[in-house]
Specification:
Radius of gyration: 19 Å
Helix content: 10-25%
Largest sheet: 6 strands, mixed
Mean pLDDT: 90
CATH class: Mainly Beta
Number of helices: 3
Oligomer: single chain
Structural class: alpha+beta
CATH topology: Acetylcholine Binding Protein, Chain: A
Strand content: 35-45%
């Protein structure tokens, strides 16, 4: 009984003390082109406090604008470290998880006082004449960073006349984290090529 109480108190202390240190509002645009799925364009809007830390650290000339050299520095020192977490993009092609190894077109700017990152996650899948499925969710399972992927307008689609698609959203209990308390939202895109 004593060990149960000790373990329970330890669990309770960890659960109470641990919390996110950075808050991000992510949005994703699914990009389709003539061939099919091209990838996922990510936009991250950081909370005001962390934004000020980034601006203080990397806006060297204090003009509230990131020049190319400053953006390169941000990418190297304040972004590339999340590569090991697939840049928080949890992608499944069918039922197979995709490891994101690279991103394209990284940019950083300041909008209304908030730092905004944007980048493209390439995910080329040629569309067929039958339905295919790809799923995406955005989260940090260490819960050091909170990414709210349930906000209005957090997912959009850049369509193509040759592609038909539907999008469904659900809570993915299988990938819950932080002592099973956080259940991430996942979006599944069903798409296929239209016969010309």
């Amino acid at each position: 009984m004593k060990y149960f109480l000790i373990n329970f108190c330890l669990f309770f202390a960890i659960a109470c003390c641990a919390h996110p240190h950075i808050y991000i509002e992510p949005s994703i645009e699914i990009i389709f082109d003539d061939l099919g799925l091209n990838g996922f364009k990510n936009t991250w809007v950081f909370d005001g406090m962390y934004s000020e830390l980034i601006i203080e650290e990397y806006d060297k000339n204090k003009n509230r604008f990131f020049e190319n050299k400053e953006i390169d520095c941000i990418k190297e020192k304040s972004f590339s470290n999340v590569k090991n977490q697939s840049y928080f993009n949890r992608i499944k092609i069918g039922k197979t998880k995709k490891i994101v190894k690279e991103v394209l077109d990284f940019n950083a700017n300041i909008e209304n006082g908030n730092v905004v990152y944007s980048f493209m996650v390439p995910c080329r899948i040629v569309a067929k004449n039958y339905p295919q499925f790809v799923s995406i969710s955005v989260y940090d399972d260490s819960y050091y960073i909170s990414l709210d992927f349930d906000c209005d307008g957090c997912l959009s689609v850049k369509s193509n006349k040759n592609i038909k698609y539907t999008v469904s959203k659900y809570e993915n209990e299988k990938d819950s984290f932080y002592f099973y308390q956080i259940i991430p939202y996942e979006y599944t895109i069903k798409y296929f090529k239209v016969n010309e």
